[in-house]
Design goal:
Layout: E1 3-6, H1 10-21, E2 26-29, E3 41-42, E4 52-53, H2 60-64, H3 66-71, H4 73-76, E5 79-80, E6 84-89, E7 95-99, H5 102-108, H6 113-124, H7 127-134, H8 150-163, H9 176-185, H10 195-208, E8 216-217, H11 222-234, E9 238-240, E10 256-259, H12 263-270, H13 276-283, E11 290-298, E12 312-317, H14 321-332, E13 342-345, E14 360-368, H15 377-387, H16 391-394, E15 395-401, H17 425-429, E16 446-448, H18 462-476, H19 480-483
Helix pairs in contact: 1-11, 1-18, 5-6, 6-10, 7-8, 7-10, 8-10, 9-10, 9-14
Length: 486
């Protein structure tokens, strides 16, 4: 066999597809009974005909990813675009609304509309350059950035420097626009303000007004995985489920191995085969704060007090900028926030097929300290009720997966860290270790390709693509661009 990929998340499948398209024999080994890692859609048994996304649900990075563009994802998966990319409900019935239409967003932000246009709107006109910088390998100048993309890259860098420091409020006059942007920054699950949170916010917020916005795949995130698996099999690759890899004995012989695992997972399997210094560096990799997942089945839409919030594919339930910063600081200090930062999505806003009669799924996360074993169902319900009075009355069923149990369905989510590693400044640029090649494991023919490698978390497939590109060139003498040329 030529290639074995350990783990079938989007990065592992991206690596496998890339290798198989190069004409190599490829096998993917997955510990779980279903493929997909953080991009699976499953029947949780909460209600007949209602399925839930077990991790990721909304995918702005999928359409923007250079890998998925080369793969032709938009030809294979129906990406449904909500009229409102994301919303931020606020006290007293107010809300920040990030329409896919930039002009409509600016108009709704009143005195801060021009500030939003000059910061986020300017970046939305340069999304290719923003993506090159934010989703690059963090070790080289991205192709195509010089010289034409320098303006967009500079705007992005200056915006991160502003929004990632105590100067983050300088351009705003009211409280709606800053809260709207901070809700996006909270995707990093880090203290706020922070440079990592600001980078996350400006990347994702700019994508909200460009291209496919913040799309929801028809049928759920599993549609993306299904497209990757179909292509892999069409090029001769195979996927083996229920096959955990705990030691070298669990690996078939191959010329090349790619691990869509945590750094520690790689070390546990290969042990002394890794150089001592490299092994020690991988063992020092840090995991971050966590999320607790709460899935609901509803008998009616969430009764948001502000009607336009109901149009959003994603709702950030966190309140004002100050409230979100306080909640994230509590989590980082190891405390459960009284009003935790919550991410909420009703996919049936754009996908009628996700409903079963009058029933619909509701997806949600609450940010919690790493390793928390607390059932956050009540905390999430109470926080949504703050902006949607009567929410309890439409809940038919629910299920919580505490942070401490998140790794049961995805081993990469250590302690509930759904980013597969702390998202902070050092690990933005030195993920997983401060080496020139973040993908090479230090042993011949072995590569790490998970979200623990650049560019980090998200359904973009780039960790897998970048690792496979290097493996193809070094182990097989094949250039990756020729693989997708057709």
């Amino acid at each position: 066999m030529d290639v074995v990929v350990v783990g079938s998340g989007p990065n592992g499948l991206a690596a496998a597809v890339t290798m198989a398209r190069a004409g190599l024999s490829v096998t993917v080994l997955e510990a779980q009974p279903t493929v997909g890692g953080g991009a699976r859609t499953l029947d949780l048994g909460l209600a007949d005909g209602v399925v839930h996304d077990v991790c990721s649900a909304v995918h702005p990075m999928a359409w923007a990813s250079p890998f998925f563009q080369a793969f032709g994802l938009e030809r294979r998966v129906d990406l449904l675009v909500p009229e409102v990319s994301f919303a931020q409900p606020l006290p007293d019935g107010r809300a920040g609304i990030a329409w896919h239409d930039l002009d409509r967003t600016v108009a709704g932000l009143d005195e801060d509309g021009p500030a939003w246009r000059s910061l986020v709107g300017a970046l939305s006109r340069h999304t290719d350059d923003v993506v090159r910088v934010a989703l690059g390998d963090k070790r080289s100048i991205p192709a195509g950035l010089v010289p034409g993309g320098l303006v967009g890259a500079a705007r992005f860098g200056l915006g991160v420097a502003e929004q990632g420091t105590p100067a983050w409020g300088a351009r705003f006059r009211g409280d709606v626009a800053p809260a709207l942007l901070t809700g996006v920054a909270a995707h990093a699950i880090s203290r706020l303000p922070s440079l990592a949170g600001a980078g996350t916010a400006l990347l994702l917020a700019s994508l909200a007004h460009a291209g496919q916005g913040w799309p929801i795949p028809r049928g759920g995130s599993g549609a993306i995985v299904a497209a990757l698996v179909e292509d892999l099999r069409a090029h001769g690759g195979t996927v083996v489920t229920d096959h955990p890899v705990r030691s070298r004995a669990d690996l078939p012989a191959a010329r090349c191995y790619l691990f869509d695992t945590t750094p520690r997972g790689l070390v546990d399997v290969l042990g002394d085969e890794l150089p001592a210094r490299r092994r020690a560096a991988l063992e020092r990799y840090r995991h971050g704060d966590a999320a607790s997942k709460v899935d609901f089945v509803l008998s009616a839409p969430v009764p948001w007090e502000h009607p336009d919030v109901a149009r959003a594919g994603t709702v950030h339930v966190g309140g004002t900028r100050a409230e979100m910063a306080r909640a994230e600081a509590d989590v980082h200090a190891g405390r459960h926030a009284e009003l935790p930062m919550c991410l909420v999505s009703d996919p049936s806003v754009v996908d009628d097929g996700r409903r079963s009669g009058d029933l619909r799924p509701l997806w949600s996360y609450a940010h919690v300290p790493a390793g928390s074993d607390v059932d956050t169902t009540e905390a999430v319900t109470r926080h949504i009720e703050r902006y949607a009075p009567g929410f309890r009355d439409v809940v038919v069923a629910s299920r919580c997966v505490p942070a401490s149990q998140m790794s049961h369905h995805n081993a990469n989510y250590v302690g509930g860290d759904i980013s597969a590693g702390a998202v902070d400044l050092p690990q933005m640029f030195a993920r997983p270790t401060p080496t020139l090649d973040p993908y090479a494991a230090g042993a011949d023919g072995v590569y790490l390709c998970s979200a623990a490698t650049p560019p980090g978390p998200g359904v973009h497939g780039l960790g897998g693509w970048f690792a496979a590109s290097r493996a193809l060139r070094r182990e097989f003498g094949i250039r990756v661009r020729s693989v997708f040329a057709a």
